[in-house]
Amino acid sequence: MLVTGLGLILLVGANAHLLYVAVTSQPECVDHVRRGEASEGNNSFSAAKSSCSPKAAKPTKLSAE
Q: Where do the record's region annotations for Disordered lie (predicted)?
């Protein structure tokens, strides 16, 4: 009976921790290959529908002149 109670407490605690992490974490957009971009190798993944806006291209020395 004691082992069952401890197991249930552990299960509830683990689920509460997972819920807390899911609600409080705000991951940034992960770099991935977007539609129309060339991939560098076979191990590249792409999102089916990216919710991240593409990064703005930084001006280079040639384009700034």
A: 34-65
